[in-house]
Every structure is written in structure tokens, then in C-alpha cells.
Hints:
- The structure is a single chain.
- The protein is of the alpha+beta class and 220 residues long.
- It folds into two domains: 1-160, Bira Bifunctional Protein, Domain 2 (BirA Bifunctional Protein, domain 2, 2-Layer Sandwich); 162-220, no CATH class.
- It is 25% helix and 18% strand.
- The chain has four helices and eight strands, in the order βαβββββααβαβ.
- The strands form three sheets. A three-stranded antiparallel beta sheet has the order 1-6-5, with no helix packed on it.
- Helix 1 (35-52) packs across helix 3 (143-158).
- It is globular and about 45 Å long.
- The N and C termini lie far apart (42 Å).
Amino acid sequence: MPVIRRLTGGRAVLHGDELTYSVSARNESGFSGRLMDVYLKIGAAFHLCFITLGLDCRIKDSVERGTVLIRNPSCFESQSTGEISHAGQKLIGSAQKRWTDAFMQQGSIPFSVDSRILSGIFGEKETQERPVGLRGFIPDINAEILKGHLAASFEETFKIRLSYSLPSQEELGLAERFESERYPDLAGSREEKPGNRCDNRKETVSPPSLLSHTIARPVI
């Protein structure tokens, strides 16, 4: 199974039937606080999204004293500060990386979870408490419905208006340069099927790609 190492770190996520997201901005204006401050602000937008979808969810905004996070490499098997849950189930897994002048937060919202594969990867028995994904609570949810609610929730939370576009030529050029510098063994080999190149630890290092992504940008 191919493995991608995220720049933002965090626990392991089984990708598949899901909506993945990425938020990036300069460390200024509404994003000028500490990592957890910004994490909670972004979490508030996701929380509003799930509320508008009809879920009675909660965002964990404090550290519980005397408790220990589950020692499990799977992202959706534990809940930490700033994460959102419904009926005891974690709805979204996120991680953030900050630099001196900017940050990037990325994450996954599963629609469904294959507990058989998940158990095979992490070597644990399947239980009724396993993550079920968003369709376990909203059977008719799909990516377009979720993206519409997400866009409206981010606009409401941050008091902005979003426009949609493809990556600019400058962004594509930066992505290609980053790929060639960070992943020299993969640069220039786009004809190969993604996921068939592994290093000596059996991990597939996949370069980031902007080519198929639609970007929602704040309108100035």
C-alpha cells in the first residue's frame, strides 16, 4: 500500500472515500496567533459546517486533565484539542505546519471507513467503536454538498467571500520546482503510475500536485 509522508505530520490516515482539504495563509490578520489559536479558528468553521448539516457535534477546546491520548497511530482513533466529534466519533482529522511568515493546515473528512482494511493495517480487532465516516450519520452526503457547506461556513466564520479558480502559472511553477528539489527521484517520471516508487523503508514518497485542485481564494 502506498504511503505519503505529510509535511504537516500527525497520525496515520487511511485515504479513500473522503474529502481532503488544505488551508494556507500568511501569519497576519486573523491568522497571526499561535498554532493552537489558528487551529481553533479554522476548527470553528468546520464546526459550523457540521452544525448546518444537522449534526449535534462538539469541538474540543480544552485539555482534559488526568487523561492520556490513546496510543494508536491511527488519526481517527483519538481526539485531541481543537478536533470535532459527533456521537463520540471524530469527524475530521487535521494537522498544521507553521513557518516564520505563513502556515498550512491540511486534513481529511472521511465519508466512509473500511474497518477491515484499517484493522489489517494497524493490527487491531474490528469493533463497533471503529470510525464510521460522515455517511454513518448523513447517508446521502456527497462531496459537492459538503464543499458547499464548507465554503459557506468559512465565509461566515472569517467574514470573507470566496472565489474559485485553478492554480496560477506561478503556483504551478513553484510546485514543479518544489517537486524537483524535494523529490528528485520522482521528478520527470510522470508517465509512471503514482505509488509505484518506494524507498528502502517501503514508503512511497508522492510529490504534491496542484494540477487537479480547485482553489477557493478570499476576494479582496
